[in-house]
Amino acid sequence: MIDVQDLVVSYGTATALEHITLAVAEGEMVALLGPNGAGKSTLANTLAGLLKPASGTVRIGGRPALIPEGRQLFPDLSVADNLALGGWRSGRRDPSTVYDLLPRLAELAGRKAGVLSGGEQQMVAFGRAMMSEPDALVVDELSLGLAPTVTADLAAHLAGLNRSRGLTVLLIEQNARLAFDLCDRAYVLESGRLVTEGPCSELAGDPRVASAYLGGAIS
Ligand SMILES: Nc1ncnc2c1ncn2[C@@H]1O[C@H](COP(=O)(O)OP(=O)(O)OP(=O)(O)O)[C@@H](O)[C@H]1O
Predict the structure, then answer these.
(1) Pocket residues for ligand 1 (CB within 6 Å)?
(2) Going by DSSP bridges, is the β-strand pair 55-60/2-11 parallel, antiparallel, or unpaired?
(3) Could you report the per-residue pLDDT of 136-148, keeping only the tens digit for each?
(4) Which of 49, 67, 68, 149 has its C-alpha lying 20 to 30 A from 86's C-alpha?
């Protein structure tokens, strides 16, 4: 569903992604881990078509959606209008199934997005992505700036959509515990290069991964 082959992306003369190859099959949830500056958002934005590869290819089957880093809502528009913008491509106007999924959004519908808390804004970004009825979702740092309970709540929604609708997910994260809890496989990106990949159960036991992302070995 998501296929990246030998991807190189540059900002001017600086190369941010160097020969990245990765794939996410239909219905899979796969994590991409990496520290600050690794190139995670560059990959997300290339998948979203916002950045052009210098070479290589990116392909997403079906209908893709992105939850961007920092949410990128329209702060002066209401929650309902932000959701409606998510539906422009699918032609969907009615947010009721999104409200069923995230009832708090129905309560917030008339509020301006810019005055909401970080967690509430992330719910709007999540709901906006769902308005496009995606087959494949790229999530750029679900947990960024959120309380653990809010992150756990949104993660449970993602897992539920993956189970019930077969939603394909590429979860881009710095929070390895969250990624390993949710996903079966992960890639690790550092300084624009993939340094390792494999089943989360194996990566969690890899001393290099544990020391970089989990604060030491985990039992
Ligand atoms: N618009 C830009 N112009 C020039 N360089 C950029 C631009 N955006 C990102 N970079 C550089 O590309 C590299 C990758 O940045 P990117 O934002 O993709 O990393 P990231 O893994 O998402 O980091 P973070 O976790 O801090 O958000 C960094 O060295 C960054 O400084």
Answers:
(1) 11, 14, 16, 34, 36-42, 69, 174
(2) antiparallel
(3) 999 999 888 888 8
(4) 149
| Residue 219 confidence (pLDDT) above 60 | no
Rounded to two decimals, the ipTM of the complex is 0.97
Contact call for residues 1 and 26 (beta carbons, < 8 A)? yes
The answer on pLDDT for 217 being more than 70 is no
Instruction: List beta partners, residue 56.
Output: none
Q: What's this model's pTM, rounded to 2 decimal places?
A: 0.92
Scanning the structure block, which residue is given the tokens 């008339």? 110
**Residue among 42, 144, 172 to mutate when testing ligand 1 (max atoms within 8 A of CB):** 42
pLDDT digits (tens, 9 = 90+) for 47-69: 989 999 999 999 998 899 999 88
Domain 1-62+170-219 in CATH 3.20.20.70? The answer is: no
Q: Give the residue whose CA is nearest to atom 30 of ligand 1.
A: 37
Pairing of strands 14-24, 2-11: antiparallel
Q: Closest Cα to atom 26, ligand 1: which residue? A: 36
Nearest CA to ligand 1 atom 11: 16
Burial of 114 (0-12, 13-18, 19+ CB in 10 A): exposed
Backbone angles phi, psi at 128, to 5 degrees: -60, -45
Residue 68 structure tokens? 């961007």
